[in-house]
UniProtKB/TrEMBL annotation:
<dbReference type="InterPro" id="IPR001236">
    <property type="entry name" value="Lactate/malate_DH_N"/>
</dbReference>
<feature type="binding site">
    <location>
        <position position="98"/>
    </location>
    <ligand>
        <name>substrate</name>
    </ligand>
</feature>
<feature type="binding site">
    <location>
        <position position="162"/>
    </location>
    <ligand>
        <name>substrate</name>
    </ligand>
</feature>
<feature type="binding site">
    <location>
        <position position="131"/>
    </location>
    <ligand>
        <name>substrate</name>
    </ligand>
</feature>
<feature type="binding site">
    <location>
        <position position="105"/>
    </location>
    <ligand>
        <name>NAD(+)</name>
    </ligand>
</feature>
<dbReference type="GO" id="GO:0006099">
    <property type="term" value="P:tricarboxylic acid cycle"/>
</dbReference>
<dbReference type="Pfam" id="PF02866">
    <property type="entry name" value="Ldh_1_C"/>
</dbReference>
<dbReference type="GO" id="GO:0006108">
    <property type="term" value="P:malate metabolic process"/>
</dbReference>
<keyword id="KW-0560">Oxidoreductase</keyword>
<feature type="domain" description="Lactate/malate dehydrogenase C-terminal">
    <location>
        <begin position="156"/>
        <end position="322"/>
    </location>
</feature>
<dbReference type="InterPro" id="IPR015955">
    <property type="entry name" value="Lactate_DH/Glyco_Ohase_4_C"/>
</dbReference>
<dbReference type="InterPro" id="IPR001252">
    <property type="entry name" value="Malate_DH_AS"/>
</dbReference>
<comment type="function">
    <text>Catalyzes the reversible oxidation of malate to oxaloacetate.</text>
</comment>
<dbReference type="InterPro" id="IPR001557">
    <property type="entry name" value="L-lactate/malate_DH"/>
</dbReference>
<keyword id="KW-0816">Tricarboxylic acid cycle</keyword>
<feature type="binding site">
    <location>
        <position position="92"/>
    </location>
    <ligand>
        <name>substrate</name>
    </ligand>
</feature>
<feature type="binding site">
    <location>
        <position position="112"/>
    </location>
    <ligand>
        <name>NAD(+)</name>
    </ligand>
</feature>
Length: 327
């Protein structure tokens, strides 16, 4: 049997954690023959709730789950971790400005970045889910300068999955027919699902769904506002679909991408498509199973260029607001 891989999850007693942990422990993150140890990180007031989650995990008797470490100590939490899934963050409260939120979460991600660098395994890779995830990831990455920048990711896969489903419903096809649909930029209401490059059943999406107005007036706003629509309907933010997207993201990173498809994740830009280097920007990506690369050579029309720059500008603004947290 393989040695267990240690997976650290912050915000482990939260809603996404509740969906995510059973999927990791049952082998859906790293495969059906890979044992795992879960390192569950919470803040002190949530340790009681976390105890309940631990009991439930124990009661699943997962064959692959070789240990559970519940803790509010970052050094213990990230010790020997090969994957860190940073889910926990402080939600925006009424009257709170974006700058305040960025500042509060910035402090969390500063210390988590440092603790990851000091304690994690040498092959550590980190996926940030907690919002604002691109900028939280930027902060953690910059506070862990010894960890290569290509090991840091912020999640936009949920937006991609949402967008694929909207195209599939409109075209009346299975979601598996929709490919090459990437999210560009920030995981926020400025993100851009570039439908011009998407395919449906192997044809250009714009040849299958020819109603141009639908994309602009319906598709893009639906995808951008989907999180808010779920909060309105459920009274709680998306959790099972977010956990599912986190599992999908890791699978996309560690497995070879099919030749006719791409996937979305925010990575540290090296200036691809003219985006400011160093921003955590979501691009169409491919993996060869080991390394990731940004898909090059996509022609962006005037509409797409405007959207790609608008979401970049938002990321630049967020970066400027947390400049004092970036060493
Ligand atoms: P919950 O409020 O249910 O859970 C968050 C948990 O994080 C709580 O248990 C809290 O105690 C813990 N926490 C807070 N600060 C912490 C710290 N410093 N260290 C460790 N744990 C800490 O939120 P949930 O619904 O699980 O959402 C978690 C995050 O995911 C939120 O920031 C949310 O905005 C974000 N999302 C990101 C998505 C994405 O696509 N990137 C989509 C879903 C979700 O909205």
């Amino acid at each position: 049997m393989k040695n267990p891989v240690h997976v650290a999850v912050t915000g482990a007693a939260g809603q996404i954690g509740y969906s995510l942990l059973v999927r990791i422990a049952s082998g859906q993150l790293l495969g059906p023959d890979q044992p795992v140890v879960l390192r569950l990180i919470e803040i002190e007031p949530a340790m009681g709730a976390l105890e309940g989650v631990v009991m439930e995990l124990q009661d699943c008797a997962f064959p692959l789950l070789k240990g559970i470490v519940p803790t509010c100590d970052l050094a213990e939490g990230f010790n020997n971790a090969s994957w860190a899934m940073l889910v926990g963050s402080v939600p925006r409260k009424a009257g709170m400005e974006r700058k305040d939120l960025l500042g509060i979460n910035g402090k969390i991600f500063t210390s988590q970045g440092k603790a990851i660098q000091e304690n994690a395994a040498s092959d550590i890779r980190t996926l940030v889910v907690g919002n604002p995830c691109n900028t939280n990831c930027l902060i953690a990455m910059n506070n862990a300068p010894d960890i290569p920048k290509d090991r840091w990711f912020a999640m936009t896969k949920l937006d991609e999955n949402r967008a694929k489903t909207q195209l599939a419903i409109k075209a009346g096809v299975d979601t598996t027919e929709v490919k090459n649909l990437a999210i560009w930029g920030n995981h926020s209401s400025t993100m851009y699902p570039n439908y011009f490059d998407a395919t449906i059943g192997g044809k250009a999406a714009t040849d299958v769904i020819t109603d141009e107005a639908w994309y602009k007036d319906d598709f893009i706003p639906t995808v951008q506002q989907r999180g808010a629509a779920i909060i309105k309907a459920r009274g709680l933010s998306s959790a099972a679909s977010a956990a599912n997207a986190a599992i999908d993201t890791v699978a996309n990173i560690v497995r070879k991408t099919p030749s006719d498809d791409v996937f979305s994740v925010a990575i540290c830009s090296q200036g691809e498509y003219g985006i400011e280097p160093g921003l955590m920007y979501s691009y169409p990506m491919k993996s060869d199973g080991e390394k990731l690369s940004v898909v090059e050579g996509i022609e962006l029309n005037a509409f797409s260029k405007e959207k790609v720059v608008a979401t970049e500008n938002e990321l630049k603004e967020e970066k400027a607001m947390v400049a004092d947290l970036l060493p």
